[in-house]
Automatic annotation (TrEMBL):
InterPro entries: AB_hydrolase_fold, AB_hydrolase_lipase, Lipase_euk. Residues 1-19 form the signal peptide. Keywords: Glycoprotein, Hydrolase, Lipid degradation, Lipid metabolism, Signal. It comes from Ilex paraguariensis. The active site is at 173 (nucleophile), 341 (charge relay system), 370 (charge relay system). One of its GO terms (molecular function) is hydrolase activity. GO terms for biological process: lipid catabolic process. Pfam families: Abhydro_lipase. The keyword Repressor does not apply. The keyword Lipid metabolism applies. Belongs to the AB hydrolase superfamily. Lipase family. Residues 40-98 form the Partial AB-hydrolase lipase domain. This is Lipase.
Length: 400
């Protein structure tokens, strides 16, 4: 298997850019994809009622949201709204990649939850801005900091306003970074009923993933920025060439997926072709740089621009930290993490737990790695049944 194909598979864990002529400008200047949406491509053909929604962030990005109902035919569900937050280089389609009885998105809908599917800026389903083009470098001037404080804030506010109900959230990987950062902000967390975090990440200084550690050591994130590459599209010739260069003579990349995620016990290899129809999605070089800063510095903090620019941006030499103790202990939390996860390392998860005021409900699976929590053939029984029981135990019913 070529490095390019293996790379596409591995990048699904974090989770293609369409050409400019595949987008249109509507009557108020919003650039919107002309391609069929997530509802039409995945959900409606399987009999799940689904509607497309858009929300605008404070900094002008147009995000796609999908609202999904049970295949039973009920238009809206009795249960509370649940917002799904995908990982790096992924989008909302990630929650529907396995069979209907294995994928969390389908399962939540069939348990009568009001499922909302989030898609962060730059991904296929959220590739819009009120005036910027994806060809503009300014379009990609963001990291997970903006995803937490703008994208997640806008999505939660929209779902809250439409349903007139507090929102349950589920995040995987980058989705948990966004969640934990956002929940330190009182104006955001007040709209959240409870949260489930799969492979929770706020600290990354104990990761054992060989491939990312190699890239960190090579300072590849800084090289990419210095080359003027603002969009990270791993289906482009330039970036696949860079990865080939890293693998050639530096490390064995034949088992690239394991070198990033850890050894997944139950990854569904039979569906790789289906995964690759949708993944990976683009992200920004600045986002990768911010994640690598976390690995190098051992902090859970805003983006580090350097001392002078930090003073201008933040009024201090070092970027402000996201203080996990500011997450109210009244917010119910559920966390699932694995003993073989090379990214959400057990030591880092324990660091997160020590800083929280509350004591989350925990599910620890010794033989699970990073991708298992999303694509294990047994995740429905091993993980999702536990999560759904947690949500239902809170006894909340949407008033929508």
């Amino acid at each position: 298997m070529s490095v390019v194909v293996v790379l596409s598979i591995l990048l699904f864990l974090f989770s293609t850019v369409e050409s400019a002529d595949e987008f249109a400008v509507d009557s108020i200047g919003h650039r919107r994809p002309q391609l069929a949406g997530l509802c039409a491509q995945i959900l409606q053909p399987l009999g799940y009622p689904c509607s497309e929604h858009t929300v605008q962030t404070k900094d002008g990005y147009i995000l796609g949201l999908q609202r999904v109902s049970s295949s039973s035919g009920l238009r809206y569900q009795k249960g509370p709204p649940v917002l799904l937050l995908h990982g790096l280089f992924m989008a909302g389609d990630a929650w529907f990649m396995d069979s209907m009885n294995q994928s969390l998105g389908f399962m939540l809908a069939d348990h009568d939850f009001d499922v909302w599917v989030g898609n962060v800026r730059g991904t296929r389903w959220s590739h819009g801005h009120i005036f910027l083009s994806e060809k503009d470098k300014e379009f990609w001037d963001w990291s997970w900091q903006e995803l937490a404080l703008y994208d997640l804030a806008a999505m939660i506010h929209y779902v809250n306003s439409v349903t007139n109900s507090k929102v349950f959230t589920v995040g995987h990987s980058q989705g948990t970074i966004m969640s934990l950062a956002a929940f330190t902000q009182p104006e955001i967390v007040k709209m959240v009923e409870a949260a489930s975090l799969l492979c929770p990440i706020s600290y990354l200084d104990h990761i054992t993933a060989q491939f990312p550690l190699r890239l960190v050591k090579m300072r590849l994130d800084e090289v990419i920025l210095a080359l003027g590459i603002h969009e990270l599209n791993f289906k482009s010739n330039m970036l696949t060439g860079l990865i080939d260069m890293v693998c050639d003579g530096h490390m064995d990349c034949n088992d690239l997926l394991t070198s990033v995620t850890g050894k997944n016990c139950c990854f569904n290899n039979s569906r790789v072709d289906i995964y690759l129809e949708y993944e990976p999605h683009p992200s920004s070089s600045k986002n990768l740089n911010h994640l690598f800063q976390m690995i190098r510095k051992g902090t859970f903090a805003k983006y580090d621009y350097g001392k002078l620019k930090n003073m201008k941006k933040y009024g201090q030499l070092k970027p402000p930290v996201f203080d996990l103790s500011h997450i109210p202990d009244s917010l119910p939390l559920w966390m699932g993490y694995g003993g073989l996860d090379a990214l959400a390392d057990v030591n880092d998860v324990e660091h997160t737990l020590k800083e929280l005021q509350s004591k989350p409900e925990l599910l620890y699976l010794e033989n699970y790695a990073h991708l298992d929590f999303l694509l294990s053939v047994r995740a429905n029984e091993d993980v999702y049944d536990h999560m759904i029981r947690f949500f239902k135990s809170l006894g909340k019913v949407s008033s929508s």
